[in-house]
Each structure stands twice: as C-alpha cells, then as structure tokens.
Amino acid sequence: MASVYTINKGINKSIEFKGLKAQFIAYLAIGLVFLLIAFAVLYIVGVALYICIFLVGGAGFILFTQVYRLSHKYGRYGLMKKAAKSAVPRYLRITSRKTFTHLKRT
Has this prediction a pTM greater than 0.85? Predict the structure, then answer.
C-alpha cells in the first residue's frame, strides 16, 4: 500500500502575505485593531460618523503605506538589525589584552 506525502517546499522561508514579510504582518494587524478601537471610541464619544470615518480612514491609509514601505525597505530581519545596531556603542576603547586573555573556553 503506497502512501502519498506532499513535500512542504516553504521550509525555512519567512511568511509573506501580499508583499508583507514576517513581523510586518503582525504590525499591520495590531495597527488595524487599534484603528478599530479608535473608531469605536470616537463614535461613542459623539464625534460625527463622517468625521470618524475620515479620521480612521486617513490613519489607516498612513498605516498601510508606512508598514508596506518598512517591509520593502528592511525585509525579514532588517528592522531588528537596525534596532540592534543602534544599541551597540560607536566604539569600545580597550587598552590591554587582559580582557580577552582571561576569557574561559567552553
């Protein structure tokens, strides 16, 4: 009895949805949830419906364009690399080799 197994050829590839890569999908989803809550709050407070739609629609347009721009500019790991690079000091001043000679090997 022969079994047919399909091969997953997407192993070790980042997820992508309509041009958004990896963590940017989550950023867009979180932004959309925030916009939904903002719309509800504005509507409950008593702001006119057309003003709510205009404000949330404009913010949604800005959110989409910024997230897509960041996704295309930095890709899968680029934004994390940029954040890590900004946390590293510009230079380290070491005047002796003692720091490196006393490191333990594991």
Answer: no
Domain that holds residue 46: 16-76
Please state the domain count of the chain.
1
Parallel, antiparallel, or unpaired: how do β-strands 20-21 and 16-17 relate? antiparallel
Q: Could you tell me if residue 32 is inside a domain?
A: yes
The answer to whether 85 and 37 are in contact (CB under 8 A) is: no
Q: Which has more confidence, 84 or 2?
A: 84
**HEC readout, 72-102:** HHHCCCHHHHHHHHHHCCCCCCCCCCHHHHC
- Percentage of the chain surpassing pLDDT 90? 37
For the segment 80-87, the average pLDDT, to the nearest whole number, is 81
- Environment class of 43 (CB within 10 Å of its CB; exposed 0-12, middle 13-18, buried 19+): middle
